[in-house]
Amino acid sequence: MVLILSLRKGLVGMSKIIKPKGRRSIPDELMQFGRHLVYSEGTKTEPNYVESIKNEIATKYKCDINAIEIIIGNKDKSYNTKGLIRYALKDVRERINNGEQINHVWFFFDKDDFPTASFNEACINSKKLNDSKTENGEGFTYNQELNITFHSCYSNEAFELWLYLYFEYLEASLTRADYIKKIENKIQQGHKDYRFDKAQTGLHRFLIENGGSVDKAIKNAKRLCEKNEFENPSTAVYEFAEYFLPYMEKD
């Protein structure tokens, strides 16, 4: 399944001055963030997490009903790491040919049981899509043909690593089941009967309200990527969270 998150222009309250964190070229006055498509290899946890970020922004800026839109498509077909990127590029070109405006594309995919060579190739090739020699107004390189910035939000071994990093840093190479157990242990300190559910909504806010921190997750994920690059454990989901963090911060 491919999740397409369309964050449309039209937010109110965008003139509020907030000092962003992590986007070096964005001015102090928050910019309208354009239109973003998120392509997810996962069918539940990743889409629900992205939707929880969308809802944070909608709540903060009291968006109109059409200001932020999620479209779920291609429900009956799953993709491997490289297949997801191939599908996304085909879909993006079709959308542009149909007159759609797209500013950023985000790939969410896990290592899981996919071959290491295939996973690494997907990570590298998705970054190579940004072939410009200069940066745009947001400080990103971009694809010169499509005028879009592509982002590789990989996780090795699983997306649940990113969720656990809300609580603490770790360097152990674990499985998805291991991360889920560790997340449950953290949440059960306040909710003894809690069990992780891939279909859980409001995931970002739930983690924060139970002792997690997105700032901590970003810091922890950056540290892992600097140490391990694509190896287990590592996750580049921090790029997505860091981009939208200034729009989620509370007064």
Characterization of this structure:
It is a single chain. With 251 residues, the chain is α/β, with parallel strands linked by helices. The chain is built from 8 helices and 6 strands; from the N terminus they run ββαβαβαβααααβα. The longest helix is centred in the first third of the chain and has 17 residues, at 45-61. The termini are far apart.
Topology:
Layout: E1 2-7, E2 36-40, H1 45-61, E3 68-73, H2 81-97, E4 104-110, H3 116-128, E5 149-156, H4 160-164, H5 176-187, H6 203-209, H7 214-228, E6 234-235, H8 238-248
Parallel strand pairs: 2-4, 4-5
Antiparallel strand pairs: 1-3, 5-6
How many domains, in number, for the residues? 1
Radius of gyration: 17 Å
Residue share in β-strands: 5-15%
Unreliable residue stretches: 9-28
Distance between the termini: 36 Å
Number of extended strands: 6
Which range best describes the helical content: under 10%, 10-25%, 25-40%, 40-55%, 55-70% or over 70%? Answer: 25-40%
Number of helices: 8
Structural class: alpha/beta
Principal-axes geometry comes out as: globular
Order of helices and strands: EEHEHEHEHHHHEH
* Arithmetic mean of pLDDT: 84
Main beta-sheet strand count, sense and barrel state? 4 strands, mixed
Question: What's the arrangement of strands in the largest beta sheet?
Answer: 2-4-5-6
